[in-house]
Amino acid sequence: MFDIKNLLNRKTTRNFLPNKIEAEIIENALRVAWKTPTSLNSKPVIICDISNHAKDAWIEKQQAVKTASHVFLFAVNEEVAEANAKKILAPRFGCDTNDEKVSVTFEKIVPNRREWATQQIYLVASYFAATLEASGISGCFIAGFDKAAAEAALKLPKGYKVGLVFACGYADKANPGWQETEFARSFEEFYYP
Ligand SMILES: Cc1cc2nc3c(=O)[nH]c(=O)nc-3n(C[C@H](O)[C@H](O)[C@H](O)COP(=O)(O)O)c2cc1C
Fold this sequence. Notes:
Blueprint: H1 4-8, H2 23-34, E1 45-49, H3 63-67, E2 70-76, H4 78-93, H5 100-109, H6 113-134, E3 138-142, H7 147-153, E4 161-169, H8 187-190
Antiparallel strand pairs: 1-2, 2-4, 3-4
Helix pairs in contact: 2-6, 4-5
The structure holds flavin mononucleotide.
């Protein structure tokens, strides 16, 4: 059931039950993620279901993929991002997307394409994972893998680079694989009113 309490009590979960996630839950999370705001409406991110790659050497040692019912990957294309962003900028100047005014403005807003593209990934991933978590699905973000090995193993559409993985499913509540967060800051330290 969709419930904010699932998010308020969220913990990174690494062990899952064999139960599959209902298609409607995944569809809703995908549609929320699709609507995620992106800088200059660049919409450069794709989500891939890579569940059938859980035994690939580049990811198999991550505890969460061993029992996850679904493994998703977020990938980004810097060229798509730039092209879409320029389509937004051009009408503001009343000119063509190739016009210097567009390029100069784009370079000022986006001094580092890779960093900018990665920001879009993390926001899309947050919306997606938060929707799943609120729907009662637990999960684990995974950035600890060899990106080049992942790109070699996955047949992503041309120009897309891997960013982040989210392994998820129904939590094995008897043994969720939570880690201690004793070094984490308290809410009082986190929020400065
Ligand atoms: C960007 C990112 C990358 C992460 N990579 C991994 C990872 O490779 N393997 C893993 O087990 N957990 C990974 N985590 C989960 C963190 O270890 C976890 O969020 C942190 O320990 C705090 O625990 P909590 O989410 O239960 O509060 C990652 C989390 C984030 C946000």
